[in-house]
Write a structure and sequence with these properties.
- The protein is mainly alpha-helical and 166 residues long.
- It has a domain of 114 residues: Winged helix-like DNA-binding domain superfamily/Winged helix DNA-binding domain (Arc Repressor Mutant, subunit A).
- 62% of the residues lie in helices and 10% in strands.
- The chain has a three-stranded antiparallel sheet.
- A hairpin with a 2-residue loop joins strand 2 and strand 3.
- Helix 2 packs across helix 7.
- The longest helix is centred in the first third of the chain and has 20 residues.
């Protein structure tokens, strides 16, 4: 057993994780996988948002785009992609649907023909007021305090940074 494997078993054992037939922590037990916990949690949290966003006519990915634009408007498609950590091929259909809904416009940047500017319309800016009710509803449905959710977000941000460092 490598030193890294032994350290992992010790760390996981401290969380009362499932064991293998020899009484050692089973590193391959589904319940011990960070990827599994993150995947199930992500699906569950996005599921909490779905009925809350439905009256606004937004999907969760569209909501994220709108959040980025409410934070800073206008933005280039490149800037939005970086902020949301989305590839252009994923972002473009979202922007097209939001434009069709009347929430934003897309236009070539007059100073750089290669850049596509994305700007909120009056309707898109007005939607922000309606969206202010979303975070309290999410907090209520998750049954966690703002401090707990903030701590979770901070830890996930650390995970994101670690993954990006590679």
């Amino acid at each position: 057993m490598t030193e890294q494997t032994a350290a992992a078993r010790t760390a996981i054992a401290e969380t009362s994780a499932p064991e293998d037939g020899d009484g050692a922590v089973d590193l391959l037990a589904l319940e011990n996988q960070v990827c599994f916990a993150l995947a199930v949690a992500a699906r569950g949290v996005i599921g909490v948002y779905r009925p809350i966003l439905e009256p606004l006519g937004l999907t969760h990915p569209q909501y994220l785009v709108m959040l980025a634009l409410w934070q800073r408007n206008p933005r280039t498609v490149r800037d939005l992609g970086e902020a949301l950590q989305l590839e252009p091929a994923t972002l473009s259909p979202l922007l097209k649907r939001l434009e069709a809904q009347g929430y934003l416009t897309r236009a070539r940047n007059p100073h750089d023909e290669r850049a596509l500017d994305v700007a909120l319309t009056e309707s898109g800016r007005a939607l922000r007021e309606r969206a202010l009710s979303i975070p309290p509803q999410v907090v209520d449905r998750l049954g966690m305090s703002l401090d707990e959710l903030g701590a979770l977000r901070d830890r996930l941000t650390e995970v994101i940074a670690a993954v990006q460092r590679g």
